[in-house]
Design goal:
Length: about 210
């Protein structure tokens, strides 16, 4: 896996990254994303879905863990809106997701790097219910992600979550792959014809 330099230890550490999936059109996401005051690229991610790709974050210097940062962003994005936000994150040691939806308590799941299930199965049921996923077919696929599988690492588990969400209209642009290097994700987002930059100063435009 790619590595990023650590400003804390001076040694290379596993790549960390995140994607924020919003169940809304890009134009609806812009006002909420501006309030984060973070540099991100925004692009369409399927039918009525958008994706935010952070340019950086406190985790890149070791200040705060990536999951804590992006989970907070996901919650902040849903304040005052009617659509949910799914934060996908990874840091080389773990990977997982958090679904934020209004004033409801966020729900999520975590896998260590080797893909061993480390969350509660009930979380997957809540996740499926809040997104209106198929209670039989989609739930069966999600439950498989909570079972041991020696061939699936943490990144593969996140890809499995995305595979289920394709039936809910999610279609990430090429190159936006969970577990990828943050710079590679940004480059992939920039190639999208509808990509726009959300600035740290609260600005947003093409």
């Amino acid at each position: 896996m790619s590595t990023e330099p650590s400003q804390v230890t001076g040694r290379a550490r596993p790549a960390s990254g995140a994607l924020l999936l919003c169940r809304a059109e890009p134009g609806s996401v812009v006002p909420a994303a501006r309030l984060l005051h973070e540099r991100m690229l925004l692009a369409r991610a399927g039918d009525a879905w958008s994706v935010l790709v952070p340019e950086g974050g406190p985790w890149r210097s070791g200040t705060d863990p990536v999951d804590r940062v992006v989970n907070g962003w996901a919650i902040a994005l849903t304040v005052g809106v009617s659509w949910p936000v799914l934060a996908l994150w990874w840091d080389g040691e773990r990977a997982g997701f958090t679904l934020a939806a209004g004033f409801r308590r966020p729900v999520g799941y975590v896998w260590p790097a080797d893909g061993t299930p480390a969350g509660m199965e009930e979380a997957m049921r809540t996740f499926a219910d809040r997104l209106g996923l198929d209670p039989v077919l989609d739930m069966q696929a999600l439950e498989e992600l909570t079972e041991p599988d020696s061939a699936a690492d943490a990144s593969a588990r996140l890809s499995g979550v995305l595979a289920v969400l394709t039936r809910a209209g999610v279609s990430l642009p090429p190159g936006l792959v969970p577990g990828g290097n943050a710079d590679a994700l940004l480059e992939a987002a920039r190639l999208q014809p509808d990509a726009r930059l959300i600035g740290a100063d609260g600005g947003g435009g093409r």
